[in-house]
Amino acid sequence: MTRTLFLAAALLALAPQAADAADPKALYNATCIACHGPKAEGAIPGVPNLAKSGRLSRPDAELVTNIMNGYQSKGSPLAMPAKGGNPNLTPADAKALVEYMRSLTGAKAGGK
Ligand code: HEC
Q1: Can you give the pTM of this predicted structure?
Q2: What is the CATH T-level fold of the domain 21-105, as seen in this structure?
Q3: Where is the Cytochrome c domain (predicted)?
């Protein structure tokens, strides 16, 4: 019984960590950098320069949705793949990645 309680307490203590996003830098380098480049400037033709476009100043919820579901704006030659093609990506990861990309580009969260 005591042992069971101890295990339950240990699991509870671990739970918040499990809900946290993975290290956004490592995720970005593994999943996003091939298309978006080291400074989110765009590494291949068809990927917009997110450092300049102002897109990273849009609301978190909108950017997270577009990362999770994939996204293609009108007239764009290339789509953003859902979850950047990484099936393990969570919404918390996507939010952390938006913040990380802002830190790469100097963009501010403006909700514009
Ligand atoms: C296969 C290439 C590719 C990969 C991999 C990729 N992206 Fe994208 N991403 C794009 C393209 C292309 C667009 C622009 C789509 C458009 O506007 O039609 C885009 C757009 C975006 C945008 C702007 C969305 C908006 O609402 O304007 C964000 C933020 C973004 N990507 C984040 C990420 C993150 C984070 C990852 C890694 C988890 C990632 N991307 C992986 C190609 C990629």
Answers
A1: 0.85
A2: Cytochrome Bc1 Complex; Chain D, domain 2 (1.10.760)
A3: 19-105
